[in-house]
Each structure stands twice: as C-alpha cells, then as structure tokens.
Amino acid sequence: MIMSRFMSLPRSFTALALVFIVACDDNPVDPPGGTAFLQVLGKGAVPERYTGEVWVRGNTAYTTTWGFRSEFGNAIKIWDISGGAAPVLVNTVIVPGVGTLGDIQTSDDGSLLIVATEPSPGSIMIYDLADPRNPQLLTRHATASTQPGVHTAEVQRVNGRLYAFLSIDPPARLVIVDITDPRAPVEVLSAPMGQPFLHDVFVRDGILFTALWDGGVSIWDIGGAGSGSVSAPRLISNLRTEGGQVHNVWWYHAPGGEKRYAFIGEEGPSSGLASASGDIHVVDVSNMSAPVEVAFFRVPGAGTHNFSMDETRGILYAAFYNGGVRAIDVTGDLSSCTPAERSFDGRCDLRLMGRELATGLFAEAPVYVWGVHFAGDKVYASDMLNGLWALREFLPLD
Amino acid sequence: MLGAHGIGMITHQSPAVAGRSMTEGYLTQPTLMLHAGGRGLPAIQLMLSLEGLTLERGELNPGIVGEGYIDRRHPHTYLHEVTATLERGSDRARGSLTIGKGFAPFGTDDPMVRPFVKYPINHHLAQILERVVAIGAVRLGPVGLEAGSFNGDEPESSGDAPNRSRLWDSWAMRATLYPIDGGELQASYANVRSPEIAKGGGPDDRKWSVSGRFENAGRRQYALAEWARSTGYVGSDKTLDFHSFLIEGQTGVGRLLLAGRLEVTDRADEERLADPFRTLAGGHDFSILGRSRWTIGTFGVAFPIATRRGVSLTPFAEVAQHGVRETLRPSGFVPADFYGSDRILMLSGGLRIGIGAMHGRMGRYGAAIPRQRGTTTPQSQSPQHAH
Fold it and tell me: What's the complex ipTM?
C-alpha cells in the first residue's frame, strides 16, 4: 500500500515535469516525388536482433547483426536466395564474446568469409566457405591493433595478395592485414588517421580511399599509381567534402572505362532508429591529385549509409536508413546542370536534376536500411528493424 | 584545514541486466580535502578523490551515463579539484578570480555535498566539473554574476588530465539572486565544445540550468528544485535535447535526517561494450541508439550518531524506484528488453565517515559563495558534513 502510494508520486511528478519538457519534433522523410518503386519480392525476418550489413555471393546472402535487441548482435545469418522471392534463413553462426558484428564480405574467389567484430574485443573472423552455407572458422585475428573494435573491414586483392583493410574505433587508425594465408594473417600496416573517426575504406585498382569523417576523404596509392604500396601508402590527395562526416566511398567504373566519379556517403547525426541525416557527395576524381566535389544527393529527413552499384547501367543504390533504398542515375556528366538545379555553393543537386529513379521500402516503413547489395537482377537490403529484403532491380522503361 | 571522507556501502539492484538482480559493496567517495589561505592570501581548495582505486568497475546507479560508464557511476579523477581564489571587497560588493581545476560556473552543487549518497542521473546535465577553469565572479548586494572559461573535454579515466589543446575552448556564465538568507535562485548557460571526444571534433553541448535552493543555518533543512537542458549540436545543426527536472529536500526529525528526491531525466542510450555497463567512450559516429526517460523517486534516512574531535559517523539507508521508457521509436535500445523490466528497485545502506573540515558547497568559488550567517566563513567549507 505504502509502496503503491510511493509509486504514484513519480507519475504525478512526471506529469508536472513534462510541462517543462518540450517534445521533440518529428522529422518526417520526404515522400518520393514521382519516382518509381523498387518492387518488393520478399522479406527474411530477423525479429530478435537488429540486422547490420549484407553481402551476397551466388545464391547465398550473409547478414550481420548489431547492438542489443532481445539478443546481442553476435549472429551471422545465412540465407538461401535461390527462390527469387523471400530470402530463406538456412543457418545462423554465433560469434562468441562480441556485442556487434559490422561488415561482412566474401573474398573475390568465394573461398573466405570475413566478418568484423566490435566493440571490444575487436577482431576479424575468417571463415572457410568450402560449404558456403556452413562456414567453418579458420582464424580469429585479434591483436592490440584491432582494439577496441573493428568498425569496418574491406577485403580486396592488391598485386595478387589478399588484404583486409580494417577501420578501427577510436583512437582511430587504419590496419591492413595480409590474409593471403588465412590461417596466418600478417599485419602490414597500422596507421593513425581520421578526425575523429576512420569509418570505412574503398579499394580498387591499387588505389585506396579512406573515409576520415571531418578529415574528409583521402586518396592513396597502394600500388596502382606509382611508388605506393600496401605497407607504405602514398598520399595522393585529400578533399574535405561539404559537411564532413565522411562515412563511406564508392569509386565508380563506368562501362566505357571512365573512372571519373567517387560517391561519398556522409553520415550525419541520427537518433535511435527513428531519424537520420547525411547526403551523398559526388566527387570528380578524374585528376586524383585535385579532386573536386561537383554534386550531391539529399533526401530531406533521412540520411544515407552504405552503397552498392549496378555499374553496367550506371545506377547507384544507396541505403538511406529511415528513407529506405534509393536508386540514382549516375550516368553521364554529373557536374553539368541548369542554374535552377544548382545549390547556392554551385554544386549540382541530383534530385533537382531528376536523377532519382526509384525508391524502395517506402511503403514498408518503418524501416532502417543499413546496407544494400546489387546482385544479378535484384537488390538486397539489410534493414535493422526487419531483416533482409529482396527487391527487384530498377529497369528503365524503354 | 584538512579533511577526509568516505562511505562504506552495499547496494542491491533489481533487475540490473536481463532480469537478474545484483548486490555489490563499495568504498565510495573516498576523498581527502584541504582548505588553506584566505585572509588576504589566495584561498586554496583541494580535493583528491580515490575512487579510481576503489570504484574502477563503477557504482550501480541505473540511468546514469558518462565517461564510458552506463548504469554505473564512473569514478572521478584523482585530482578532483584544486583551485586558488583571490577575493576582495566588502559584504556589499565583492569580486573574485579563481583559477585551477574544478567546476565551471554552471548549474547546481555537486551531488557529493547533497543529502543522498546515490547520485541523481542528471550529473552530466546539471554540473560541469573536473575542468581547468578561470572564473571571474562579482557580488553586488543580492545579485551575483560569474563567467568562466574552461576545457570542454570530459575526463577519459581516473588518471586523465584535461587536454592542453582544449584549454579555454568552452565557456559558461551564471547569474544568482540571493533574495533571503540561505536562499538563492540561479540561471546559467554553458557552451561546451566536444565534451565526449577528447581530441575534439565531436558534437558540442549547449546547456541551460535554472534552480532554486534553500538551506537553513543549521543545514538540517534543505531544498532544491532544478531544471536543466542540454542540446547537442554538430556545427550549427541541432541534434537532440535532453531535459532534467529534479526536486529534493531534507529535514531533521529529532536526530534523524529524512530526505526525498524526485527526478525526471532524459538519457542518451549509447552502444555498450561486451561489459554491459561500459560504452565506447567517444563512440564511432555521432549517432545514439535512442533516448530514454527516467523517472526516479528516492527516499533516504540518515542518523548522525557521533561527532567527536571532528569525526562524524552517519549510518544511512536509501531506497529508489526507477521507471524508464524509450522516447524515440523505433529505438535501438528498449529498456524493458535490456533490463528485463521497465521498473527497477535499488536499495542502499552503509556508513558515512567524515574527519575534519569538509567541503560545504561544491560548484562555486569566491564571491559566488554566500557567507554563513553570523560569520565570515564562506560556505565552501564546513566543519561538519551536515548532509
């Protein structure tokens, strides 16, 4: 009785206190304006954990999990996507002793699966994929250099050797590990960088892009443009994109051989799984020594996260957290637009240019899309709230 | 004058994590104090905290967050406070200049000199401490004004010192009205650069605090009502507001001291490490998992049983009931899922020991501290620790 009276006091007090507390504004996502929709083919539900990154190889998709829902984000989910509709969960691999799994990627030959773990203890898990749906752990690479956590891990081959490029949680640094022999990884570089974070990298043709948050994006030669190497990268240039908070990069190779644009993801502040912010920045890297930001893409009320591309058609698929998935036409000259399509600082606004082709998962809200992966004729979207979605790719009407 | 203070305590919390209860014992708030100077010389105020030795795992305190700890109060730095204050003037008009490591002129007194052993969870909303400060203060009749500059970075560990590169990047100011003896009304504002990322570059905080406080001459009657707000900014872009509203009071009944506190405070829910009571200090981006609102009612009783040759012994007991819910939906942190309930009970009891001269007020210096009535002694020191 006394306790129940006591408990009623906080409720009364809450009512009083709420008088003084201003409610937060909703920050609704702008509805798509006249664009098409990416058809939803199906969903593989993950109700007990928040879903993280997605990777697809062949008829198998892999997703990671993040944070704490009713279970810790320590599970790799393995999906059969051969049916063409809803992904079917076929296996779950638990990584012991971690709270969050971030990036997940197979090696280019499909023999290995690499998973980043954070926060402390930070590591990469290297699995053998002889049976793609039943990964077998080869090595857990955890050293002083991978602490307190590996936020992202990109796996790429440079001059014939396979490397994992690790972005480490603060104190931020880049760690590069030679995993050519996956049972005996060798650390070849550990270099502090990032202001204050190093969030991700992109590696292609011996060129390394590093996403340095407010430090912008740096371009390094690691064997593709002169004297640099993986163990001794040579800085080519740095560009501070508008707004900073550089999170991820995709260097686009067009079918005709043009390699003019890099797409830079800006991760602005977000709150819970309810709101997000941040643009896609288009950087002209045709002169790598002097990159220039020429355009941007913004979804008011939402923020971008990871990318994937249909490079043949020149379509950038971008995860946009609470804004779902956006398909953007990035063919042709992105730096040329009318005055009405320019922002006050001279950059072209891809949205005003009509470059947004389609949206995905808008009708399925609430969603919070972490990553996308274009494969075959489909786009797979990892949704922190719901699991893994299969969407049909965007096909322009003739 | 020298002083020492410490509290032996047992805390039981149910639930703590995933429906499980926890019971732990602590030596909390072990401190050594020194007051020196004055009478024309700079007044020196020193407090060494030994919590880094006794409280490394943190002290169970559901709802609190800061400096890499969550749901446990973090240990303070070894050099908690060392200041030199030069004060001049008369009873009607006084001015002072304070330099050292201590409190910015913002908000209310440190919870350590208030009635409860368990901290309110708004500590990082309502006080700014353990910074290198330079503070000017003036008192003209019933009005006091303070302005100060300090480093924005919060400590990263008990042995951490303020970053030299961050000195003087933040500022605060406070106006106080002293309408009656023992009573004061204050309003303050602070602009704190990148508090959670020590090397800089993180979100900034803009903070407001308004409070009213009363304490009688014997320090057995005490009341405080405060409202605080902290708003995050990335550059000029506003992110989220966090509010706190708190009232607390104490009264003496015979030899007993009875105290009550009600608090409603918003908390940023940050990503936890494998240890569920720790977070990645500084994070890896500017996002938070969610925001939860905590409503906490606390009742305490203390029984000062001995005061002899400057030694005070005070057994105490406290009971606190917490209610918590997420305020952003969908949220990356659902309290009922994490704790196993949206109601948390905490019971604490132990013995407070004080020897010599204690700090009377913590959070104000020089001309901003009211004189104890009938004396020329500022309330910055107290021969006995009434709370």
Answer: 0.82
